[in-house]
């Protein structure tokens, strides 16, 4: 597990030896893209002695964005995992429309990234592509060809249903478990609707919260999309039977040479995981007409610039230099987070590096028929259960559409709804928070004693991620500060409490409330030592249930985030 690092941590990637009169640029990154950006910074520093690029590393995207939104960060540039998230910070990010580096990208891709004010605030690193792979050898044996329209795809699905071996759960293999349902939706929704101007506006509105899923202008399109998607599942072209299988199960099925197609990203189904004995063609998603063909892609990350730094002439010049470097083929190759040839570049001038089986996709990209998927996953990522219920005929389409509409509204509300005004910050003290008591740790443990009578609380300090900053705290920001875990009420003896305290202490610092431990003895809130057999009602991680003695009783469980939300909403007083 990666833990958050304090704002004071700066990772210098400058070339060896001192530099004089250099301009320093600090890029705020996360552990996820740290290595890729480090490679870029190291290469850039070696080529540009007048500028030194350093990194400030955050434990997670949520933490970085939390500091950014509270004005607690002064980086010059930032990485983002999603363009839609970056665009919500346009009040502090600098528009990149007029930079020469922006003009080097494909127009269709840049248009996908525009914020609601029409400006561009991020530039993408090379991405992996999302599409459909067909086993052309099996298709040829059966006398079928790769479909070029949705009607042809549904006809193929119907014929395959009666042609494929009875042992096959479907004629397609899916990769990604429950997320494969999102991929399947994407494969139908984009060519039918989302890759049009109207559809793109609808998705952008959903992602930014300016439109509702059931708006009259769009509901018929969503209904049409899901009805066609259900046909593909009913005809067993796609299957819900494999959702809980291990991640590579779909690849194993496809490599068995009896499955016609496979759905997934190039990073999942490429990179040598597909048997070289198979004849595979990667084809676009298909719509009502051949011209609707398109495919998706996901950048490794996005790069943005701070308005405050852009207003400083020296910083501005340095950022321009780095952005110009970033928008080159050589830099884009360094930005790739994994090895392999399954990447696609968003640069206009990028050479076609893809293998022959991907050639059709490169051609479509040059025609502007490649979309960026992060807004789609950002919007629908929490709606999978309702889609599965509909596709398995547990609920009808009206109920599913209503449920999705409610989920999207709840997501929007949780991200923006204020649950507290923090007037006194609690700082994440790097070097102390995981080894000893701190104000943040004490505050966190005490928060769980507010409503119910409990004798004490015992939690690991590893649940602390970053500082609780001054200002407005929203429900969506809690995950940036405190890790969500399942907690439980338990009735234990003081001896068992001490054992659990020592177990937590082996990997983290034990956080307690109402109870303390000193020299192997448990004390209550009044400072009285407790006998080993004294019974206690405590809150602790549900994962510790297996370590409880035979005389212990485990009670109800609950989410730590739900509990904290209630605490901040109703009981937190400054």
* Biggest pleated sheet: 7 strands, mixed
What gap, in angstroms, lies between the N and C termini? 32 Å
CATH superfamily of the largest domain: Periplasmic binding protein-like II
> Which range best describes the helical content: under 10%, 10-25%, 25-40%, 40-55%, 55-70% or over 70%?
25-40%
Number of strands: 22
Provide the CATH top-level class of the largest domain.
Alpha Beta
The structure class reads alpha+beta
- Identify low-pLDDT runs: 1-16
Question: What is the CATH topology classification name of the largest domain?
Answer: D-Maltodextrin-Binding Protein, domain 2
**How many domains in all?**
3
Please give the radius of gyration in angstroms: 27 Å
Strand content bin: 15-25%
How would you describe the overall organization of this protein?
The chain has 3 domains: 11-126 and 300-350, Periplasmic binding protein-like II (D-Maltodextrin-Binding Protein, domain 2, 3-Layer(aba) Sandwich), CATH 3.40.190; 128-299 and 357-413, D-Maltodextrin-Binding Protein, domain 2; 421-570, 5'-Nucleotidase, C-terminal domain (5'-nucleotidase,  domain 2). Strand 19 and strand 20 form a beta hairpin. By secondary structure, the protein is of the alpha+beta class. It is 37% helix and 18% strand. The two termini are 32 Å apart.
């Amino acid at each position: 597990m990666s833990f958050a690092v304090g704002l004071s941590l700066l990772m210098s990637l400058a070339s060896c030896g001192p530099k004089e009169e250099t301009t320093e640029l600090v890029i705020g990154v996360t552990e996820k893209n740290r290595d890729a950006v480090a490679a870029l910074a190291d290469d850039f520093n070696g080529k540009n002695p007048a500028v030194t690029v350093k990194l400030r590393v955050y434990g997670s995207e949520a933490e970085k964005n939390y500091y950014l939104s509270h004005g607690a960060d002064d980086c010059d540039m930032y990485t983002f995992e999603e363009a839609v998230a970056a665009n919500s910070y346009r009040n502090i990010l600098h528009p990149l429309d007029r930079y020469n580096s922006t003009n080097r990208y494909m127009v269709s891709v840049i248009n996908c990234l525009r914020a609601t004010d029409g400006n561009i605030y991020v530039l993408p690193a090379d991405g992996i592509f999302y599409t459909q792979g067909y086993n052309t050898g099996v298709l040829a044996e059966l006398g079928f060809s790769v479909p070029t329209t949705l009607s042809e795809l549904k006809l193929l699905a119907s014929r395959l249903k009666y042609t494929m071996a009875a042992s096959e759960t479907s004629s397609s293999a899916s990769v990604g478990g429950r997320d494969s349902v999102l991929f399947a939706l994407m494969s139908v929704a984009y060519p039918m609707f989302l890759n049009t101007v109207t559809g793109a506006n609808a998705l952008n509105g959903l992602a930014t919260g300016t439109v509702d899923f059931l708006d009259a202008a769009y509901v018929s399109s969503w209904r049409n999309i899901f009805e066609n998607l259900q046909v593909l599942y009913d005809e067993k072209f796609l299957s819900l039977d494999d959702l809980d299988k291990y991640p590579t199960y779909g690849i194993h099925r496809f490599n068995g040479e009896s499955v016609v197609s496979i759905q997934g990203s190039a990073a999942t189904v490429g990179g040598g995981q597909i048997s070289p004995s198979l004849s595979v063609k990667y084809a676009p998603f298909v719509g009502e007409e051949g011209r609707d063909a398109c495919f998706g892609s996901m950048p490794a990350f996005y790069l943005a610039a701070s308005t405050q730094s852009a207003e400083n002439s020296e910083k501005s010049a340095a950022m321009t230099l780095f952005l110009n470097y970033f928008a080159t083929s050589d830099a884009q190759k360094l930005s790739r987070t994994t090895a392999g040839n399954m990447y696609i570049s968003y640069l206009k001038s990028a050479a076609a590096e893809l293998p022959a089986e991907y050639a059709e996709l490169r051609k479509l990209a040059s025609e502007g028929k490649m979309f960026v998927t992060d807004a789609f996953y950002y919007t629908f990522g929490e709606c999978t259960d309702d889609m599965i219920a509909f596709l398995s005929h547990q609920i009808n389409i009206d109920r599913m559409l209503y449920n999705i509409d409610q989920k999207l509204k709840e997501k929007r509300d949780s991200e923006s709804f204020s649950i507290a005004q923090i007037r006194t910050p609690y700082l994440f003290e790097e070097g102390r928070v995981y080894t000893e008591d701190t104000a943040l740790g004490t505050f966190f443990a005490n928060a769980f004693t507010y409503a119910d009578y409990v004798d004490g609380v015992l939690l690991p300090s590893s649940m602390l991620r970053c500082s609780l900053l001054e200002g407005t705290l929203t429900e969506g920001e809690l995950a940036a500060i405190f890790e969500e875990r399942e907690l439980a009420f338990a009735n234990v003896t003081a001896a068992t409490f001490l054992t659990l305290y020592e177990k937590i202490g082996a990997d983290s610092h034990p956080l307690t409330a109402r109870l303390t431990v000193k020299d192997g003895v448990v004390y209550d809130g009044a400072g009285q030592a407790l006998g080993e057999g004294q019974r206690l009602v405590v809150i602790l991680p549900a994962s510790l249930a297996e370590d409880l003695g035979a005389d212990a009783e485990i009670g109800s469980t609950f989410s730590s985030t739900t509990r904290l939300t209630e605490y901040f909403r109703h009981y937190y007083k400054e």
